[in-house]
């Protein structure tokens, strides 16, 4: 009865969402909150969620903070942290979350967001401890088992990670919360342990998911990775090399994402460890590094995929250093009074490397120094083309969050039919990653 009453009270908001008028819906929520109408707190929560998902991070944070000031609620304080994290300030988010967890130690969503913030800061061991706390509070949560398992894998605790991912697969394979990348990680583990039956089971489970969701283009990409692992296990060297070479040729294509990069690097590492020669491997590793090393966390994730080959790890870290140098050189030009020169350099480097950090840096300079850039319109069109083609605002550093659940940790489920807009101005957040 309460749900029906709330739906009637907020009818104008839900109606606006149903006709895709998200900005109007957000403003209606804000007015509902300010006038303290019936269900004003719930309206504020929907409005802040709409703002957060559409990239209006400052407005979302202000609304969450207004709720905290009016009536301290855990979800509002968590919303402040989410807005800080999405805006590229993970350190601020951790400070907010520490205060929240101190007063609400049983609020599990806070641990989810804290783990992600620590993850993006590159504090993998801290993130692992945080995700472990979340799974202890909710031991049957598929999503949290996935996050904890993947974080353990990346942090070097492979046995722990495999056990958690295996449990998540047993209890949640058919759940909409399940991330099939877990099967890929398990397949790598089965190959490393020479467990043929386990490797075959990973293949069968992924084929089962494809049968249930034939329209998901991501699943066949993951299946190709497991098939390559089967070829390696069965000593079908020629077929394994052919499959890896085919993947390597797609590194610069728009649809090749960070997850694909991690999986490919892990595959090339397995070949190299077995002394299976792939002559173009060094060039492929360098290309992967230059495209996807946008932060310390991303760089270390790629390095995790190459465990067993220190030369690959060094090449990945060197690529990150190269990207830092490129952005620093461009920023120096900007500081010396030549913002247009900085943009031109960043765009040239962005077109060469396809690195999201470089491309987004060019866009940032264009926004900040619009009046001082004579060729602003032309350069902005060029930058926007790169951003849209290579989805540089859409790199997300989640763990076990690929499934479209419709609700982020600490968020609220929006009415059916909601389609999030492509947010503008977000820094590359990386989320969900591969091996």
Account of the protein in words:
With about 425 residues, the chain is an all-alpha fold. The chain has a domain at about 325-390. The chain is about 70% helix and about 0% strand. Helix 6 (about 75-85) runs antiparallel to helix 7 (about 90-105) and helix 19 runs antiparallel to helix 20. The longest helix has 26 residues, at about 310-335. The chain starts with a helix and ends in a 46-residue tail after the last helix.
What's the SSE blueprint?
Elements: H1 2-9, H2 11-18, H3 22-34, H4 40-53, H5 57-70, H6 74-86, H7 90-103, H8 108-120, H9 124-137, H10 142-154, H11 158-172, H12 181-192, H13 196-212, H14 218-233, H15 237-248, H16 258-273, H17 281-292, H18 296-305, H19 310-335, H20 339-353, H21 356-368, H22 376-389
Q: Which segments are poorly predicted (pLDDT under 50) over 5 or more consecutive residues?
A: 402-406, 416-435
Give the helix proportion (percent range). 55-70%
| N→C terminal distance | 46 Å
Identify the overall geometry: globular
The count of β-strands is 0
- Biggest sheet record: none
Computed Rg: 23 Å
Structural class: mainly alpha
Helical run tally:
22
| Share in β-strands | under 5%
Task: Spell the H/E element sequence.
Answer: HHHHHHHHHHHHHHHHHHHHHH
Concise summary:
This protein is mostly helical and 435 residues long.
Based on the model shown, name its key terms.
435 residues; disordered C terminus; mainly alpha; globular
